[in-house]
Amino acid sequence: MSEPVAIIDPPDGAVLMHIASPGFRAVEPDIINSELTPASVYAAVAAQREPVFAPRTVTAWLLQDVFVACEGLVFDHHGALYGPSITQHAPAEIEWAAGQVREAIAGATVPGHDGPLVLGKKRGAANYGHWLMEMLPMLHLVLSRVQGDRLGVLVHDIHDPQLGEVMQSSMRLAGIADEQVRVSNRFPVRVRRLILVDGLTRHGTYMSPLVRACHDRLAHDSRGTGHERVFIARGIGMRRDFARAAELEALAERKGFQVLRTAGTTLQQQIGAVRDARVIVGAMGAAMTSIAFARPAAQVLVFAGAAMPDTFFWFVANQFGHRYREVRCRQTEVEAGASYDRDLLITDAEFGRHLAAA
């Protein structure tokens, strides 16, 4: 039987800074076909019914002699796990990482970095949306406040070349030079000085207004393409897309929408494609994160499966001043256990009505 993992808080003396995150008012989403939403999903998106989010505190700690494993799990030099680094990691993942760290403490060779490094990896590190809205803003938050020639960042090793390009270009736009970047995979690395940030986002329940500063910088010098109506395609082979994606994309084009296919486009091209948009439409998925680069007051129309328990894009829309509408759709039938991971069913007539209303 494996040894239980001790979970600890960072010591008080390790606090590098407390950053005040302002409170904000949130606009409850306009949900179409809300009667399709199961009770369990309605409960899971309870944050959408919070009219006011009180001010909070974002904390950054400077931790000494730690191990980083998997997607951002941070262990001290005795093998105890820092609680704030746990972000939706499964118990099996935590147990595996702890075992790897114990082997490193016992003498197994692992890569090392002196630091200081800002931790820029957490659960969902290989997701475009989580990178842009959760991890990159953490890096920007610290680097915009802490000066130092040796200050670097630690990010996750990504095998998807397009996401890797997005990560690299977004860090450059945020002022992070290539030589500041260190990369690690799921196996442990030892870091002598690591900056751990907590409180900027809580997936599904909170997103701080402080994330805006990062994206304002990314889009500051970007020119729009002049397209005011943009349809963001989910991507070939992606789940949770429209069941008849090609037909609906063609219908959107006939209705005057510019179709944005993010595959094969650079981050700068994605920013430019939505910069002048007044209406942005698409199926719920990572590519819709591009709404963060649209100007305030844009209408965001998101199509989602009835069983999809997600508040991510609603939070993004609130933080960037967009008007958010969500259309819940029936979904294709598949085997049990994949309730929300199914394609969306909608007729041409209904789809056209929603585009017209937007």
From TrEMBL:
Pfam families registered for this protein in UniProt: Glyco_transf_61
Molecular function GO terms recorded? glycosyltransferase activity
Tell me the ranges covered by the Glycosyltransferase 61 catalytic domain, including all copies: 128-300
Instruction: Name it.
Output: Glycosyltransferase family 61 protein
InterPro entries from the UniProt entry: Glyco_transf_61_cat, Glycosyltransferase_61
**UniProt key word Transferase:** yes
Q: What is the lineage of its organism?
A: Bacteria, Pseudomonadati, Pseudomonadota, Alphaproteobacteria, Acetobacterales
Q: Which UniProt keywords apply?
A: Glycoprotein, Glycosyltransferase, Transferase
Keyword Glycosyltransferase listed? yes
The domain of life for this entry's organism is Bacteria
Species annotation = Lichenicola cladoniae
Query: Which PANTHER family does the UniProt entry name for this protein?
Result: GLYCOSYLTRANSFERASE
